[in-house]
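## Example record

The block below lists the input lines for one assembly entry, exactly as stored, with component labels intact.
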Amino acid sequence: MTRILEIADLRVDLSRAEPRVSPVGPVDLWLDAGECLGIVGESGSGKSLTLKAILDLLPDGLTRGTGTQKIAQGGKLVPTDPRRLRGAKISMISQEPAAALDPLMRIGDLIGEIVRHHSGCSWAEARLRAVDLLRRVGVPDPETRARFWPHELSGGLKQRVVISMALACQSDILLCDEPTTALDVTIQAQIVDLLRDLQVNDGLGLIFVTHDLALIRQIADRICIMYAGLIVETGPSAEIFSNPQHPYTRALLSALPDIEQSEGRQVPIEGTPPAATAFPQGCRFAPRCLRASDVCRQAAPALLATEDAQGVKVACHHTGDVT
Amino acid sequence: MDRGRFIFRRLLQTIPLLAGIMLLVLLLLHVVPGDPARAIGGISASEEKVDQIREELGLNRSLPVQYVSYVGNALRGDLGRSTRSGRTVTSIIADRLAPTALLLACGMILSIALSSVISVISARNKDSVLDFALIGVTVAGISIPTFWAGLMLILLIALPTGLFPINGFGDTPLENLHSIVLPALTFAIAISPVMIRALRAKLVDLYRQDFVMMSRAAGLSENAILFRHLSRHAAIILVTMISVQVGPMIFVSVVIEKTYALPGLGEALVNAVSQRDFPVIQGITLVTALFVTAVHLTADIVISFLNPRMTLK
Amino acid sequence: MTDHSGFTVPTEAPAVRAPRKRLPGKARFGLAIIALYVLAGVFGPMLLPFDPDAANILQRLRPPSAQHWLGTDQLGRDFLVRLLYAIRIDLPVAFLAAFFPMLIGTALGAVAGFFGRIPDIVVSRSADIVQAFPVYVFLLVLVFALGSGATSFILAATVIAWVGYARLVRGEVMRLREMEFVAAARVSGLPPMRILATHVLPNALPQTMIYFMSDIVMMVLVLSSLSFLGVGIQPPTAEWGRMIAEGQPFLRSQWILSVAPGLMLMMFGIALSLVADGLDEWSRK
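Predicted structure tokens for the full assembly:
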């Protein structure tokens, strides 16, 4: 597997905080060609911010801290400025498709504009390619639809349009920020199928952020579990689901309703994640962790590979303990 | 087609509106306590004079008759005669149209340009020192009386440099333009602050929108985002603001005409009010009301082209 | 759930009342300035022994001196005293010219927004017709009909300016009408007028107040403009706009005659705008 993206030491800082307050980070990520990396966490875990930070698209009040980003260029990984990756090597789709489409432009023009930006072709050519892209993402009757205004489309179609705009960038990696959260369940499934199709058939690498564990199980090859701005466990999807190591992961999975597992109660996790300005010293999950001990509260655990599981890394002082 | 029907409906709506306006204009005279003819003639006018006025203006007839005859005459272009000079109101209006039109046109162009530039700079540099300075200037600008701004321009620019005339309109088109410069600038100072406030607020809001983030994610440059996406939204705001601000714009132009002694409709109106010349007041008011209605209608039509959701009412 | 190190994780929201928000600094600054104006207007003339209307041709156009701190105007009247007396005209008249429209407009808008149908049609169409007129020209013409001076100005303003309040309040009331607390009140059997007056209107008040502040600024500017044009407050009464007009012929020599009243106007307007902006921020928090 060729590695196409390598991010080290990614942080998101509060712009005006002195001393430094980092709601996210430090975080390391990487992606291989055609792979789907899932980032999972509850609200406030920083997963969306992580994704936005990759392209330096953070909202007002947040800045990207120093960290390196390497992207595959001509077979090698080369350090690149995040802004230059935008629309070139990496593209992005987000949660609310209605908000992502400029309501004052027809969708054919919205897609065409991006096509033109990347290839410099004429408007006529761009419009034709827009129709092709619409067809690729499964929009029925694309020629007619291209003349539509955004508000004339259903939620599912809107999201397909957004995906086609991302495809227009012809990048190798697609960042997906909870793209199905705002959609009906049936539409969700369609969009997920589309993304899988693009991954498998077009070799598109995906970084998929969501809070929905069941969803991530379907789509991701590898998973990162995030809590309070840090990755607490990461590894191949199958391993994580069958043998979760981190207490938080275990709690998440036990809270997950599972048809196959009729035994065992669902155990909700008590409490809420800490605010960035009040991150505890030591392990950030310790206040809610049933296994927390003194060492957990004093020293933050590092993300380390486990001995038994293949490719899994956990950030916990108590790995290897049996529950 | 939705838009066609929308435009047609709007056009239809203006007819009762215009009828109502003409009624109101006629009623204005009768709001005056006492005898309308006396109000026009003045306290010291003789009985014969007052009777003559009553005859000329048909004030002795019933109200509906007066209304119908006024509308009928107006449709034929007859708006009566000035009680001061005896000239037809239509000819007075025709004479004085040019300075007002030129002032409004140049003033609006300048205002739109100024507002657009300042609001973009302010929004793109949000929360910087520059932004605060511009906001401060804008707030101050809202509180500046127009006539005072005009006088300050005269004091600080025209008088020391002698580059611009401080009154009159000139005869040749070149002189006309020359004498409109300071007035148009005053107009922009008066009108821009409100537009800048609205535009800046809209731009700041737009920059927070997801579709801007997505455009950036797709690699579009800031300028591309501004000129191809945001400009449409901004245009809607501008057109709406112009439509809303027509009234104040007209008042501002009246004041400016007086300040710079421009022989336009505004100055004629003020003189007519001082001289109690009712037909002239009536005629100019009607013309301006028509203008305002036309602007509102045009603005609605333009917006229906820009905003695809508007026709779905 | 408490652990031994003292980290307490709350499992339910703490029952703490939000503290009363303070008015932002700019609003307080603006209010201070306005207070200064009021004080100057009330007490200033008492401290200076000049009659603002007493002409003294021999003393005309004098520069500032120990006796006349800001000099005299074109009729020999003490300029500073006239500036202060003008406060007694411009402020109250502008206030009233905004106040009555607010009363009427709010009432009409509330009824139109709450009850809909016929009241709404009547109010909205009337508003349309008034707005179709170039509002300020309408003002000029009304002044013609009613004569110049403070009372006619206030009357004319009331006839025209109620529209802004009506539209604002109508919109707010229509928005609030759909909210649950109104449904709850209806279900409990309260008469509609009561619901409107005691439940709905108070929520529309902040926006109305902010508009009211800006409206006063507008009225001051319009009043002084009309006086500048000669159809507002008549001489010899001291009024800033009129004073600016009277100073215009003397721009070259005694420019202070036109500059000072304008500055007074501007500062008053800025102060009120600051209060309005501050109120706006305060109501959003």
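The radius of gyration of chain C is 25 Å. The CA atoms of residues 229 and 252 of chain C lie 21 Å apart.
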